[in-house]
Design a protein that fits this description.
mainly beta, 6 helices, 433 residues, 20-stranded antiparallel sheet, globular
Length: 433
């Protein structure tokens, strides 16, 4: 046992001082990463997994915050090749990412928690967004003395985008105990290729998607190639770092939209969904037919109407980002590293749907433990894309092959992010020398 401890101590002490915030584990590598996360801010797992489940609406409303109910989703994947030899090199990264959110105003939940005047119709707002991209980037690594810089020009193609629609939620509680809620929204979907030929109606008037309407396989490929050549945008990322002390490296990052991407095809539709509730007292006091319940909903086939396809340009930029970060190694080696990051992001900064809500602060702090760069563990907490999350990361690095995995919890509400109201996970593998 003493010999083992001595060997480990020598190993840790002999590790060199790296002037990298993020240490490359190989000179040449290729790899793939996949991640996904989804969360909400109303109920956590700890609220549900109890002996006696109680839905406390006033408590939910008070803890929900001014943004109301928020459901968020993010996913991404990338394939990369990279060369980094003593701070010099370049690589290629091809990635896709999809993100979206749904928001219901807190006023609706105030009604559920506190009630309102009988027979009075109340109107509140709803919001949503959905976007998807394909991105090709070329990171270029360079060094000027102790200063290391990575410049990453990238070409991105917006695949689809739904800006925040004009949506409202109307609800009323009647004096006889009945209630109803109605959602109305005008939704615009912008896409890279035209979907007009694939959106059809059947004999009953229901909207259906017919893939054959997109054309032959070759026509679909041609349309995609045209979209890639004409509709893409450009942005530039720059990240720099400098060792100010043996134990401390500081850095900064900047991502600047250079030229917008363009979506040239538009689908527009009106959506209406209603929920009606009979007086509950009457329902429980009088016999009901088997299978009957006090709730009634709109037919799912009647939700969308007025579907039209047209040519219309919508410009999209990738987020503007700026921030500072650091790596502090209290023992002068890589056994323990503290990574703080603080920044600002602006979603679609020059787009038609830009608003003050598009400006989002970001932060992350992680504590990394590493055993001779072979085994590693990281605990982190962060706020990005309007989601608070906490994660545990593990890696196994055999020099030739590295495996990474992460699991965590998240929510748009800070306190709910600790009660497992959302989950995030990622996996990755890298191979190289």
């Amino acid at each position: 046992m003493k010999k083992l401890l001595a060997i480990l101590a020598i190993t840790f002490a002999s590790l060199p001082i790296f002037a990298d915030i993020y240490i490359p584990h190989r000179f040449v590598e290729v790899g793939v990463n996949v991640d996904a996360e989804a969360g909400e801010n109303m109920l956590g797992l700890t609220d549900i997994m109890v002996k006696d489940l109680v839905i406390d609406l006033p408590k939910i409303y008070k803890e929900m915050g001014p943004d109301g109910f928020v459901l968020s989703y993010n996913q991404g994947a990338d394939v990369f090749f990279d060369v980094n030899i003593n701070g010099y090199g370049a690589g290629v990264v091809v990635s896709e990412d999809i993100s979206g959110s749904l928001n219901i105003s807190s006023e609706f939940f105030k009604l559920l928690a506190e009630g309102n005047d009988m027979d009075t119709e109340v109107e509140t707002s709803m919001g949503m967004n959905l976007e998807g991209y394909i991105n090709a980037a070329v990171p270029i690594h360079m060094k000027f003395g102790k200063l290391k810089i990575t410049a990453t020009p990238s070409y991105f193609l917006p695949v689809f985008y739904i800006p925040n629609p004009n949506a409202k939620l109307t609800y009323i509680i009647n004096s006889d105990g009945s209630a109803s809620a109605r959602l109305n929204a005008d939704i615009d979907l912008y896409t890279a290729i035209s979907l007009a030929g694939a959106i059809k109606t059947d004999e009953q008037g229901n909207i259906i998607f017919d893939q054959d309407g997109l054309g032959t396989q070759q026509e679909i490929i041609d349309n995609i190639l045209v979209a890639c050549s004409k509709n893409g945008g450009i942005d530039l990322g720059i990240r720099g770092e400098y060792p100010v002390l043996d134990q401390l490296d500081i850095g900064a990052y900047l991502n600047v939209p250079v030229y917008h991407g363009t979506l040239r095809n538009k689908l527009s539709a009106s959506a209406e969904f209603t929920v009606d509730m009979e007086p509950l007292l009457d329902y429980y006091l009088h016999p009901q037919e088997e299978g009957q319940n006090p709730w009634s909903f709109s037919d799912i086939n009647d939700i969308f109407s007025g579907l039209t396809a047209s040519s219309a340009e919508f410009h999209v930029n990738r987020p503007f980002r700026i921030g500072l970060e650091a790596a502090y190694r209290p023992f002068g080696n890589n056994m323990v590293t503290i990574h703080p990051m603080l920044g600002l992001a602006i979603r679609n900064p020059f787009g038609k749907d830009f608003s003050i809500d598009s400006i989002i602060p970001e932060y992350k702090i992680s504590a990394d433990l590493s055993l001779a760069q072979i085994l590693g563990l990281s605990i982190s907490t962060e706020y990005t894309n309007k989601v608070f999350s906490h994660a545990l990361d593990l890696f196994l690095n055999t020099r030739i092959v590295e495996l990474k995995a992460s699991i965590g919890t998240g929510s748009s509400n800070f306190f709910k992010s600790f009660s497992v109201s959302g989950l995030k996970a990622s996996v990755g593998v890298s191979i190289g020398i």
